[in-house]
Predict the 3D structure of the following.
Amino acid sequence: MEIAHPTSVNEALAGLTEGVTPLAGGTDLMVEVNFGHARPVQVVALRRIAELKEWEGSRIGSGVTWRRIERDGPTALAEAARTVGSPQIRNAGTIGGNLGTASPAGDGHPFLAAVDATIELASSTATRTLPWAEFFVGVKKTARRDDELITAVNLPGNLPERQAFGKIGVRNAMVIATVCAVVTRADDGRVTVALGSVAPTPIRAPRGEAMISSITSPKDTDLIEFQRLVSDEVRPITDHRSTEEYRRHGAGILARRLLERCLR
Amino acid sequence: MTATTKRRTLATDATVGQSPSRPDGIPKLRGEFEFAQDLRAEGMLWAATVRSPHPRARIVSIDIAPALAMGGVHACLTADDVPGRATFGLEHPDQPVLAGDEVRFWGEPVAVVAAEDEVTARLAAGLVEVHYQSLNPLTDPAEANRRDDVFRRLRIRRGDQTVRGTVVVEGRYEVGMQDQAPLGTEAGLAIPDGQGGVDLYATSQFVHVDQEQVVASLGLRPDQVRSHPTGIGGAFGAREDVNLHIHLCMLALHTGRPVKMVYHRSESFAGHVHRHPAWLRYRHEANRDGRLVRVEAEVLLDGGAYASTTSAVLANASYFAVGPYRCDSVAVDGIGARTNNPPCGAMRGFGAVQVCFGYETQMDRLAEALGMDPLDLREVNALRTGDQMPTTGQVIETPLPTVDVIRSLRAMPLPEADPDAHHSSLPGGSGLTTESGQVRRGVGYAFGIKNLGFSEGADDYAQARVRLSGDGAVVETAAIEVGQGLVTVLAQIARSALGISRVEVAHVDTSKIDSAGSTSASRQTQVSGGATLEAATRLRERILSEHEGDDLDEEGVWRGESLVVPWSSLADEGWAETATFRHPPTTRPDENGQGVVHADFAVAGHRAVVDVDVELGLVKVIRVDTAQDVGFALNPASVRGQIEGGILQGVGLAVMEELVMKDGVMLNATFTDYLLPTILDAPEVEALLIERPGSWGPYGAKGVGEPPTISSTPAVVAAIRAASGKELNRVPVRPQDIALP
Amino acid sequence: MIVEFSVNGEQVSAPVTLPGSLLDLLRDGLGLPGSKDACEQGECGSCSVILDGELVCSCLVMAADVAGSSVTTVEGIGSEEALHPVQEAMHQAGAVQCGFCTPGFVVAAADLFERNPHPTQTEIREALAGNICRCTGYGAILRALERVATGSAQ
């Protein structure tokens, strides 16, 4: 059978044998197909699996689209969702698909890193949950095995009250992030900072976090130092979209501005 | 049947000066309009192209056997299969139809394949084994210039070369490689006629010149090749040159079957010419009163591997290197270099765009050095009717309302800043990078000039035919409609001249009418419009004369209050009139670039308002207002459409559009990374049409397509400079150019 | 394989080859060439269709995956006798030049007004952010859709 249309996760996993390609929203796979870079011969389509679209509290099914997240997601994740592609892309693209592709520039990834989300994976024999940092392995590389599907993203039960997202791009729609970031601040002053497009995977900025989290009411000089630390911690490259120098500069400024938003 | 009361039924809302909606609008809105990519024919094969991955290499061998072995493949052709002239080209036929011994640019076609379906054709193309010996590409046009590897050098010297001014401003500027990126890619269908000839339906801006090149390379008689105007999804210069035309005809004749080809987007980037990147050196000298005393310019264009229209683009860039200003001591040296970068050619603005960025930046710097208001400086030097072009010495004889453009633009009110701006109006947009307090607003002006029509002695003409039919009248033309609204305006002209409402425009092929020339150089409305006006006017005169009538309308011919010939009889009389319109002649320049080189001119000015997040280097273009010299607006809505579309292309060049090349290889040949402005990037536009009829175009109209792209870019950059204090000597301006030291 | 689904209100049974896109199926298999291919990667919106009530790029939908679904293309918006208000407004406003992006805009705009009959200018821009036009500069398109939004079109 060339294409399967399972209606349950178990059915999908049973069909996920060798050489079978999972298909969610198609917004990444079909680009590869259209460019002649991929020619799947057997596909398991996930679009009809209701389970994967379930969103219970802090467990977001991998089949939830960016359109829904834009509407119903926690602040910074909803803000990120709004910048994914275009309305057409957001209606089809899913949070699970975005994870599966694991682009270093994935707009949804910094949020997951900032709140220490976990990724649920299932195979026909077992399920497991990985911390985000173990899920993302490299540029477009994840710890997902070929016989596994990403089934859900788990956010912590209590999300930080203050959250802010930002994405630097050259035009105002449909743009791959030059730098994107999420900053959160809990009531107890603990700050997390996560960034995308500045390393092979989404990363946190632990030195910047540690420095600013220890200060109850940061002053301007503290914010400048925070900015400098974040700038220093990122590992961007120069490519046809931007330069290492600019990304480093942008990361620091973006992080500082997002923190300022969280401090208001 | 006679009517005793004469009724004028001319629909006065569809004549010149009005904005009737376009005749192909509804089919386009319903998805029923046929573009080249939508064409089908019985028994049709699909073609695909094998392209070089190297910017320069020797072709050691080509093995087509693996492709031919694939099921469903009907043909695989290489250079050896070109029956006639091995090369093609608009100005010089120097570009191989298919590469023979050597490839000279990344993406150069090496072979073409025809198969039962598109997927098979592309897969088969991937199986052709080409052995290359990679060679060192020449990718630096300055180096090419040093080696004298150039398509053209152009020298302009006018006036006393020894004069000097009190104040001197020097500068170096760079313009990156923009792409036309029309939404419809290259596409076509070639149908063999069973008698050794072929009918070609392909995306094009000039069917007659395509036909000539197909005839030459196929070794056929002219009457054996017919090129048909075909639905096209935009052009902006990309389709003046042949790209898939000869390939399709070769395959059609070889296989005996209709053959279709559609380029994918990346292939489209590789497969058509681009705007010339430019390196400019300027020296402006003026006196304390602001008058320009002397301008020196060096204009270096990278023409890429083959000639295309580099000679003409260089000419344009050089002749307009001073801008719409008087100056009696001018020295311009233009170089069109040959490299192993992809070929560059026509793009809307055609050389005038690049130099405008240079000279307008210079004018702003000169104003600063003089302590003068930048607009006062422009006005002091503005070129007027009766003046001589600073470069060629040509006396400007038609209206040139430069001063009106400057003054009316200056008078347009500026928008208020909005402290509660929604994020979509801020730099960064939904990326939420920037708050309104983190933004600095800047305003910038720029002015530009462009020629209309072809120059340097080219025989620039267009033929049109107007004939009566049962319903009304038909205007027949081979002029290409690329979206600009030619089909609408030709009917308006015919209506006004004939005095009847029911007029439609029919595109006919190269065997049925003589050339209308290229849809480019902002010329088509003027020359095809001119031919239509002439044909319709003469037709009406002849009909009235023949029937001794004094009026003609939808009912027929009238004499006084009597209908003497009803339309139904008139339609049977076979009335038709053909006219060939030529604009006033131009000449080849002398060895110093002097002469009556251009047919006409148009000026325009732009004022940009931008908000800049200086820390992050992000820009939001809030408004671009404009005043443009249009002669007479035959269809104001279409003129406005050209202005708004052209301005956005200028904005694109200013802040986001550039083909990034590395060692001759294009790095961003996709829409993900070649960024076109979206609706969220589009500024508000207020357009003032300055109408001073007097040009040779119909009813005094001037061409309007290019001026919007010329001074819009430098206006945006001037505004960014005002906001950021940065020098910005290169476009497109990137965030790092603003944000980093 | 055969895929059964509904297109513009009609049930069809279409032969489909994996992994071809819905766009190719519409254009080559079903004689509906209104949707256009301009970028192959969902970056321009020229191929926009409504799939099960949602606006998507048909170049990014695998044809084999639409079994049981319902698709509306530009050919299904408005009719010969009665243009959709979006089509009428765009026609009157001069919002069509080359026309290649037009089907995508019609579908996206029709979808917008279905969900939000009176969008603000900002909402219109955000809804059409996935549709690229190279000819018009978007000015006439916005004017057309603002007239539909305020009910002053037609």
Notes: The longest helix of chain A spans residues 244-263. The two ends of chain A are 57 Å apart (CA to CA). Chain A touches chain C at residues 2-3, 5, 23, 25-27, 29-31, 33-35, 38-43, 45, 47, 67, 85-89, 91-92, 172-174 (CB under 8 Å).
